Amino acid sequence: MPAFPTAAEDALADSQLRHNLAGATGTIRAKRAEVVGELDDWDGLRAAGAAIKAHTLSHLDTYLERFETAVTEAGGTVHWARDAAEANRIVTDLVRATGEREVVKVKSMATQEIELNEALAAAGIDAWETDLAELIVQLGHDAPSHILVPAIHRNRAEIREIFRREMGAAGAPAPEDLTDDPVRLAEAARQHLREKFLRAKVAVSGANFAVADSGTLVVLESEGNGRMCLTLPETLISVVGIEKLVPTWQDMEVFLQSLPRSSTGERMNPYTSTWTGVAAGDGPQEFHVVLLDNGRTDALADEVGRQALRCIRCSACLNVCPVYERTGGHAYGSVYPGPIGAVLTPQLRGTASEIDKSLPYASSLCGACYDVCPVAIDIPSLLVHLRTRVVDEQRGPRSWPVAAALAAASWVLGDARRLAAAQRVASWGRRLLWRRGRIGRLPAPLSRWTDARDAPAPAAESFRSWWTRTREEKS
């Protein structure tokens, strides 16, 4: 992926993409505002969510150990993964141990982050996405562009063509008379997925939350595909970021109100699935949790940056972001697009690549993302913090002109006589550079600045000179 400015320029040239994004984000934004406005205590709910997540992150080691103990006592097995490679190896080995060669999946950002589908494919294992939007992305050989609605960049006509072209090669084909009516599209997906649900022996999921006290995992979804994946297979493997923990069941009361309102604009999500270990004759009889680090510990070590780990993946910040609405998610080069991706991805992956260096600048700093965040992540401040980090990491031989300019400025500003002399030189230079109330083209390397914007001409007389002249006239 190129750096964000280049990728964004390409996305801006796609008028259909901009039309799709504007319509979808505008609809979700309006629904969220309506249901949030119904609550008198939304600010208190928001503060409570932020406090719970901040407290958990401050004591994450304690809650992780408590969670592992609870899962083990309930009959599950906990695996620890330092990075994507280790997590993929663990999941692949667990699937191979069952003797199966396919899995069904619940929508999961963590498994997309580690590119689990690709790792399973390399091992000869088919992974089938069962979320409708994820299915569209998978069949379209595409990449997700939104946290909540991965296929937000596609319209109904495009989805119909994807289904007609690709479904037959992956399972039950689409009907010959398929139209772009949403009901017909959903029915085609339902028929296509049903045989996979009934056949699959292994499922892979993520989790929205993990309750430390009980070892319970929680998934919120709108279609029911998650419920099918979590109950029908014999083996369930859940890949969960270590930041997804909450201490107690009582804490869930806050997030079960704030997450649906912030994500889908609903007062309550249609399906809330919870599971704790295994139970004889009920649901999967083998349960594994893979606790994923993959850069989260590094983010946790940053006292400012760690607040990004409070994110509950609601996508509210994407839906209000003027940058995301015009460029879409692919331009961010990460499974986490939009404002939260701009602050989370560089912390998880580092800022070695050009795309990751550019992400903190993928924002106008308008602050709308902070206003809607249900856990009060101050994304604008994080963006500035990460911009500083990028600049600091890039200091070196190539930055000597900047260092020299700053040293010269420090020398001039450090003495009143030198500053007065510099002001006199600026006044003389004004006569040479001033053109119709503005400065024309400055010599290189300053020409790169004046080629892109007008610079106001220095005042004909400095304040220092005016002060001296008027005092002399009075005396």
TrEMBL record:
Does the record's keyword annotation contain Hydrolase?
no
Q: Which InterPro entries match?
A: 4Fe4S_Fe-S-bd, 4Fe4S_Fe_S_CS, FTHF_cligase-like_sf, Helical_ferredxn, LUD_dom, LutB/LldF, NagB/RpiA_transferase-like
The keyword Transport appears for this protein: yes
Keywords per UniProt? 4Fe-4S, Electron transport, Iron, Iron-sulfur, Metal-binding, Repeat, Transport
Pinpoint the 4Fe-4S ferredoxin-type domain residues.
308-377
Give the superkingdom in one word.
Bacteria
Give every LUD domain span. Answer: 64-292
The name under which this protein is listed is LutB/LldF family L-lactate oxidation iron-sulfur protein
Organism, by scientific name, is Saccharopolyspora cebuensis
